[in-house]
């Protein structure tokens, strides 16, 4: 590993040296003083942004064009690398009169923000032009599907789990575990990992208020530039940020019957320096969750009928600083802290072979504290598209798991008393560098290297001999090339090499080392047909390494009859993915369809066996075998009227596993079908009123040992814009006609052993929401570290594995 890190460091230094001097093909050296000219192009009547407007910069002395660009979805444009001088900004778009604006920059002030530039409709088309400023809820891009959560009014008052349920191609179970096309995924926040995600995806999602989420990107075929983590792909949650001159921000609050959220975002920007800060909190009322567990074991049957009364509370805060030294060099840093608590009392009645046999009264308390810190440097050049970056990241996390159980027999006499305290610590250091060089407008080359040093430690208060210390170091390097085969056929391909070094001491005190090297190729071939229709063929190889929740050997006896434990001997999953995609736009409607095939080796699934107590079960994790999955996904959006949108997403995939251990017995070694369906209707009315309705259906879910019954969610929301659209009031409903959602899971290993669980989860939510924005908001995304190489917990979210059930 040391050799590999030395190689990565040498590559970093060579690339840094390259970045400090004129880059190949760049021609003359960059001017000593350059700046940028920016503006916001708006319609003079509606005050809405004009997207794709052409902006040209002309030197007034020579009358020759210097540079140009197109406006983005918010009407923003920024023209880089401009030498001091006097220019004319020429703005044009179909249906508008061309606008000319004089602009001047100086060596003392090389940057000039023109502010708002208004376009007036031409005489012949003014009455025909209508611009809608509302962003589409779903956008289909060349390499990803984007769900714009901020454009969906029904998200207010919920958390990230509620948002995920409505994202195309995703399915979410009652624990909050997320799958993409029936396979596990890597979840990032703003393009980078989170210490909370490394422990439990489900708990981390519950910590993020829905109002903080700008969009969710679903990346099914990541290139070699991305970490190879995620059998199904990558989910990237983009949170709301602003970067406007002056001071701007937003306040959001919601109060409901199940959960309460509040968050505050503030940005201050002056010249080349900007600062972003965010504070958020959430609180879920304790609500009774009815549970029932029936264990069928070799020593007899045990039935538990119980209740839990758990609450959830969370806090998060962040501070980001950003500084442009000049038009070519940028330095940014961001620190984020998360704290989350989930727990409360629980109790159950015990029946052994149908005969009452006492009670269990207990309490569980689980908490997470995580700090993520990033430092990023980015350098561009006179050559458009050329970029060099170096980034460092520190993740430090601490999670606790405490429980107490007092079991008494039918007469009330003490029978068994259990308590335990486990502290898990996760520390991660990352250094990476990336370089992008465009040989031409149609040929781009990328190369980069990355090193990750991880240490996972689990400390047991009751038995220090069982303390678990696990080191995982990863070194990686990649290269990609993108070019046009023809005017309409594009290709992007690459390869990534990753070396993994693992070391720990097993339960017998024997040191264990497990080093391996993998190559991960990827390729995408796309063709544009008639301008608005695209087909693509993609292939990639992916990996998933188990994280702390899968590895931790801590014996979680929150429910003594349903014990959980990690497995430090797990191997990583390896998968091959092939996808054929089709997308088209027809008169305001969009259709995106895909067919895919996935083959995954060393699949990690939970596995149930006999526990130490008669009638109890032990759930752990094993590499079950190899799975094959064929599937299809269709997303469609249709506008019956300009202000009414109908949207649907249908996904199906097969589940088929080849068990590698003949001594292991499960329920499902054939071929089974999973599906999910999402329906949405959104209507805008006069006076700033909006009405939205949605429904989600998830089919039964299969693993080697278990089957989970289908689930159905539904809800709606109404929102009214107030205060000249600077604020809004809303009312949201989730499952208003049913307080509880009954979910049943059956796990079996042969005919004589198994577990049946019934959970009545309090899902109903009625919430009142308020949102207020001040200042000018411009959302930006900067390149960050992406550690996408660790399989996250997809089974233990919210403590749903034990008698104490989270909400």
From TrEMBL:
<dbReference type="InterPro" id="IPR037066">
    <property type="entry name" value="Plug_dom_sf"/>
</dbReference>
<dbReference type="GO" id="GO:0009279">
    <property type="term" value="C:cell outer membrane"/>
</dbReference>
<keyword id="KW-1134">Transmembrane beta strand</keyword>
<protein>
    <submittedName>
        <fullName>Outer membrane receptor proteins, mostly Fe transport</fullName>
    </submittedName>
</protein>
<dbReference type="InterPro" id="IPR041700">
    <property type="entry name" value="OMP_b-brl_3"/>
</dbReference>
<dbReference type="Pfam" id="PF13620">
    <property type="entry name" value="CarboxypepD_reg"/>
</dbReference>
<dbReference type="InterPro" id="IPR012910">
    <property type="entry name" value="Plug_dom"/>
</dbReference>
<keyword id="KW-0732">Signal</keyword>
<dbReference type="InterPro" id="IPR039426">
    <property type="entry name" value="TonB-dep_rcpt-like"/>
</dbReference>
<keyword id="KW-0998">Cell outer membrane</keyword>
<feature type="domain" description="TonB-dependent receptor plug">
    <location>
        <begin position="146"/>
        <end position="234"/>
    </location>
</feature>
<keyword id="KW-0812">Transmembrane</keyword>
<feature type="region of interest" description="Disordered">
    <location>
        <begin position="785"/>
        <end position="807"/>
    </location>
</feature>
<comment type="similarity">
    <text>Belongs to the TonB-dependent receptor family.</text>
</comment>
<keyword id="KW-0813">Transport</keyword>
<dbReference type="GO" id="GO:0015344">
    <property type="term" value="F:siderophore uptake transmembrane transporter activity"/>
</dbReference>
<feature type="domain" description="Outer membrane protein beta-barrel">
    <location>
        <begin position="380"/>
        <end position="772"/>
    </location>
</feature>
<dbReference type="Pfam" id="PF07715">
    <property type="entry name" value="Plug"/>
</dbReference>
<dbReference type="InterPro" id="IPR036942">
    <property type="entry name" value="Beta-barrel_TonB_sf"/>
</dbReference>
<keyword id="KW-0675">Receptor</keyword>
<dbReference type="InterPro" id="IPR008969">
    <property type="entry name" value="CarboxyPept-like_regulatory"/>
</dbReference>
<keyword id="KW-0472">Membrane</keyword>
<feature type="signal peptide">
    <location>
        <begin position="1"/>
        <end position="19"/>
    </location>
</feature>
<feature type="compositionally biased region" description="Gly residues">
    <location>
        <begin position="796"/>
        <end position="807"/>
    </location>
</feature>
<dbReference type="GO" id="GO:0044718">
    <property type="term" value="P:siderophore transmembrane transport"/>
</dbReference>
<dbReference type="Pfam" id="PF14905">
    <property type="entry name" value="OMP_b-brl_3"/>
</dbReference>
